[in-house]
Amino acid sequence: MNLNATLFAQLVVFFILAWFTMKFVWPPIVKALDERAKKVADGLAAAERGKHDLELATRRSAEALRAGKEKSAELLAQAEKRAAQIIEEAKSQAKIEADRIVTVGKAAAEQEIVRAREQLRESVASLAVAGAEKILRREIDARAHAELLSAIKQDL
Questions:
Q1: CA 88 to chain centre
Q2: 128: Cβ–Cβ under 8 A, 6 or more apart, which residues?
Q3: Is 145 exposed, middle or buried (0-12, 13-18, 19+ CB in 10 A)?
Q4: How many other CB atoms sit within 10 Å of the CB of residue 152?
Q5: Nearest-5° angle of CA 48, CA 54, CA 55?
Q6: Are 131 and 149 in contact (CB under 8 A)?
Q7: pTM of the predicted structure, to 2 decimals
Q8: % residues pLDDT > 90 (the chain)
Q9: What is the radius of gyration, based on Cα positions, of the chain?
Q10: Residue 130: pLDDT above 80?
């Protein structure tokens, strides 16, 4: 056997094998590796996007929570302010009503005083007339008049 022919045959077989590998075996392997690398890159990008979205959602939820707390504090303050305002209005209305009742009571008391004075005047007048009538019916005597006047004073 010839060494050159063997070497030449091995060289031809090697090139055929290399060509066959490059033509039929290597492209599917490279394609599979590229697809796998793309899937890994897409997964990492999705994970990064998910992390970023989670961070944004956390910020938004914290902002919404803060805004909700501020809104509830504002509503609570408004409710307390309104309650104080209602209490003040009720107090002022109660004071107005109390003043009106006192005024009505004073007016009624004044009317009663006026009525009592009128009745007293009428009584005094009738007693004076009765006393004068009694004095005139009797004879004029200072001692008898003094007793009669003291009796009239007791009636008043």
A1: 17
A2: 152
A3: middle
A4: 17
A5: 90
A6: yes
A7: 0.43
A8: 64
A9: 61
A10: no
Q: Rounded to an integer, what distance in angstroms lies between the CA atom of residue 55 and that of residue 66?
A: 16
Query: Which pLDDT tens digit goes with each residue over 31-85?
Result: 999 999 999 999 999 999 999 999 999 999 999 999 999 999 999 999 999 999 9
Cα–Cα distance list, 47 to 35, 53, 74 (Å) = 18, 10, 40
Tell the residue number behind the tokens 């009720």, with chain if given.
90
- For residues 15, 19, 25, 27, the Cα torsion angle rounded to the nearest 10 degrees is 140
SS3 sequence of the chain: CCHHHHHHHHHHHHHHHHHHHHHHHHHHHHHHHHHHHHHHHHHHHHHHHHHHHHHHHHHHHHHHHHHHHHHHHHHHHHHHHHHHHHHHHHHHHHHHHHHHHHHHHHHHHHHHHHHHHHHHHHHHHHHHHHHHHHHHHCCCCHHHHHHHHHHHHHHC
Query: Which residue matches tokens 């008391």?
Result: 109
- Alpha-carbon distance values, 109 to 25, 94, 113, 124 (Å): 122, 22, 6, 22
